[in-house]
Amino acid sequence: MTGTAGRVALVTGASSGIGAATARVLAGRGMRVVVNYLSSTKAAEELVADIEAAGGMAMAVPADVRDAAAVDAMVEQVQGAWGGVDVLVHNALIPYAVKSFQDMTWEELGGKLDAEMHAAYAVTKAVLPHMTERGSGRIIYLGTGLSRRPRAGMIALGTAKAALEQFARYLAQELGPQGVTVNVVSPGPVESRTADDVLDDATRQRQVAATPLARLAHPADVALAVAFYADEDNAFMTGTTAAVNGGMAMY
């Protein structure tokens, strides 16, 4: 495919779920993929092996994206092996409390906000010099439909991701003249292990019933939207949010 071959893509939180699906898609389109992970070493190494077996190029690099020094070390390792990062897919999920505001402490709400934005700040700062030097780059953040459509118990995640979406718009405005696009992919509910921890069967059934396409998203559905934004040929979309929710919410 044109516009992808040989470029380096860093996918944070890539050992499972949406991140792993994105790594597979981008590698399949000719990118060299950095599989970032926090602690799932075996899963990350298996993903790299799968990508390489399919003819792609990948490397697994551990780093806590909330730790700026760890992020800088990861990007330096990538630069030493492959040069700078051309595509950043910031997917890593920062833990959060699922509870009502009335039951929530400031440490739970403010801590999620701080960690969410600190991670986005750190990974973006680390990859940006190479992108601006080249005059080209793609930054894609993973958001959530909960930032626009509240659901009980999800105030910490929804508020933090809403901040991330506005952060992306400001970056899109600032970095556009330097050839760097910044966009958000905003999934609705996704069939995954993480969803299993949050959604009970009754909630899942209600969400499927409210979705015109009559199912929840698969990780690959989200990955393909990310890949669209990541393509070098997709040069005139920035500051946008793609809702990958099967029509559950339309805006």
From TrEMBL:
Entry annotated with the keyword Oxidoreductase: yes
Taxonomic superkingdom: Bacteria
Family from the record: Belongs to the short-chain dehydrogenases/reductases (SDR) family.
Keywords: Oxidoreductase
PANTHER family, A to Z: 3-OXOACYL-(ACYL-CARRIER-PROTEIN) REDUCTASE, 3-OXOACYL-[ACYL-CARRIER-PROTEIN] REDUCTASE FABG
Gene3D superfamilies the UniProt entry points to: NAD(P)-binding Rossmann-like Domain
Identification of the protein by name: Short-chain dehydrogenase
InterPro entries assigned to the protein according to its UniProt record, in alphabetical order: NAD(P)-bd_dom_sf, SDR, SDR_fam
Organism: Streptomyces fuscichromogenes
A molecular-function term among this protein's GO annotations: oxidoreductase activity
